[in-house]
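If you are new to this repository, start here. Below is one unmodified record pulled from the training split, so you can see the exact layout before writing a loader.
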Amino acid sequence: MLLNEFARRAVARDWVVVDHELTATGDLFATTTRLVRDAVLQVAPPGAWRAAGQRVGALLRSIEVSYELAGLSVGVARSEEADARASMDMARDLTELLVSLGEAARDHGRGVALLFDELQFASTAPLGALVTALHKVAQRELPVTLVAAGLPQTRGVLAEAASYAERMFAPVEVGPLSDADAKRALAEPAEREGVQYDEGALLRAVAFTEGYPYFLQVFGDHVWRYAAGTPVAAEDAERIAPLVRDSLDRGFFVFRTDRLPVAQRRYLRAMAELRGSEVSSGDIATQLGMRSSAQAGQTRDALIRKGLIYSPRLGRAAFTVPQFDDYLRRHFELERHEPRARRPSDAARDR
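And here is the target side for that same chain:
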């Protein structure tokens, strides 16, 4: 919703808006070049391009050819030296692209807003290249900006991509709504349609949803369909709450667990057993029956990459959405790690 509001305000000021939702398997570099292409076509039609617009078109054609020849677009394995060289090439190419795009937009009295959702999925090298390019754009005071949203680990992803990334952006943590705002989110749309909530119903809804915007939407939808009438009473909210929980289980939480490997699901279930807003990696390992948190390090990292958990500080882990721990406790048994039995060959290796 916030990205939509940024887009609305940018369009109202005659800025070009291009957007994309990243995925775990997406390519940020290829996505950005595509968005630049879309943006320059919206800044002005090719027949009206001035020198900067023509330069963007030429750069896009050059980049497409050079990266296909290098094998980058088909995932050919490369050495660390080649990866480092490719990172520098990406930074150079994105810088030239965004600077030229900014100059083209300025020539036509426009601006360009790049909007990215799920930025936590961005890979380090292309994100670092994008930050480098935006830094140069800012130095030249060109009308190109980036607005991005992501899960809590996004701040760490940015810091890993470029040491000065946090100085370039103004990170804002968007947590759950306050009780007052959560009540308004339910009551005001309903009032516009002639439906009232009594205070008891609002209190029950806010307590159930914990102020999480999507949960509020689902609760409001179920009230609209199943409440006895207006005003919506506390008894209505109490009766509807189990229906909302079932809907979230089947339409929200299940997609976070149904294709997880066993080790990852066990890790999440052990986290849930600890019942804290954030828990120690060592305590999770203990729940799993492991000797140290290092044994589960790869599992933890995989869950962070998938956006299911994040690390609020060193050695700690937390779920990215509320009530996931409750769902896990209700649907999965706690399973402990079973060490592999030692074989005679193991003893021989130990000697």
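Two things worth knowing about this chain: The first helix runs from residue 2 to 12. The beta strands are 16-21, 112-117, 144-148, 279-280, 309-310, 316-319.
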